[in-house]
Amino acid sequence: MSSAGKTSLTTKVLVGMGLGIAVGLAINLMGQNTPGTFVNDYVVNGFFLAVGSMFINALKMLVVPLVIFSLICGVCGIGDIRALGRVGGKSFALYMMTTAIAIATAIVIASTFGIGKGMNQVSEAEFSAKEAPPLVQVLIDIIPSNPIRSMANGDMLPVIFFSILFGISMLLVGKRARSFVEGAEVANEVMMKMVNLVMAVAPYAVFALIAKAVAELGIDLLASLAGYVGVLVAALMIHLFVTLMVVLKVFSGLSPAMFLKKIRNVQVFAFSTASSNATIPVTMRTVTERFGVNNSVASFTVPFGATINMDGTAIMQGVATVFIANVYGVELGLTGYLTVILMSVLASIGTAGVPGVGLIMLSMVFAQVGLPIEGIGLVLGVDRLMDMIRTAVNVSGDATVSCIVAKGEGKLNQSIFDDTDAGVVDNSDSFHIDEGVQEEMAKVVEAPPGKLYPESKREAEHS
Ligand code: ASP
Question: Does the global pTM surpass 0.85?
């Protein structure tokens, strides 16, 4: 298949995104986004809501089984069990380091521009702070008392812990667990096929998700919060295009240009869903099949990063802290800002990558440094859009660290990374069911227990 044909999914997703922005803007500017209008009730909150939510559900449906099977295969395939500790240590250190740099950059930029100074603190939006889990509880909860419950709730850290332990135990059982490992490998491949199937409908879903988000955006708020939004977006872009790319080049020697080209799809998914967790299947697929990161590394670094690494969210916290401190005329001082940095890095460990979680973390930071929590109401109106942008930065950080760790461990296939076309979603191959395969599967289902293998073996011998 030609390269042009192969890239068509990415192009279609980008077209879906562009059309979504255009349609959403039109609805917004024509004032059709108010309850009671036909467009608002039946199109935006009917059709767009249904299509978008079904798609997000489809992505979330893949996350837990994909993480479990790929981690089991990852642990069994790592070759040297000590490497597991190294991968864990390196990725944790890099995730924390990039998050700390992110928030420090944000504070410096926001302070330089003095955003929020002289602004009136009028906010109609009420913000009620939810509790973020304390760090001790986060540590305790890494070990699931009931793994099925953790799986049902989609709690990533305990699921990661259980799957790693399961994989290690399979290695300890040895040869008798071999068929189980093979089974997990097949299950992992099946899950990856499911990712392809779900990704195929992405252009339409991305259109619906973005059209709805833009239709509901407070455009008038954007103008009044132009300083906050401008500085936040600038800091996010600097982190994505400068900091992360410098870190990638310095720590792995890999090409930032190639990275940025291939990461686009993941960013669009993150942008549309505003959830690093829901984007895990796409991040995992891209990191392994487009960047050439071995599954033994990606199966750990991607879900781990979706949970503990939130560079974009940390940037929002830095900018919002400076903004609200200025609006309320609070002088935080160096100690205050250092506390903000520490708190946001710690808060990112315990909170999952789901929409809007950044605001919960922000309330935790505010409580710590004594800023008024109700100040968060000031930025609430534009937070959905900011969430979408910062989630795209969050997942880019996850992929960057995955590539660095894989390269350092000798688990990155350089020729896949360098090949522009490697692993693009090729729908024509993905969705073709071979007739021979269908017949073979039907035989498997119909065969009496224990009969299948010897017969098929005999057939093979006679043919
Ligand atoms: N939505 C973000 C994520 O999933 C978290 C946040 O900033 O609210 O990564």
Answer: yes
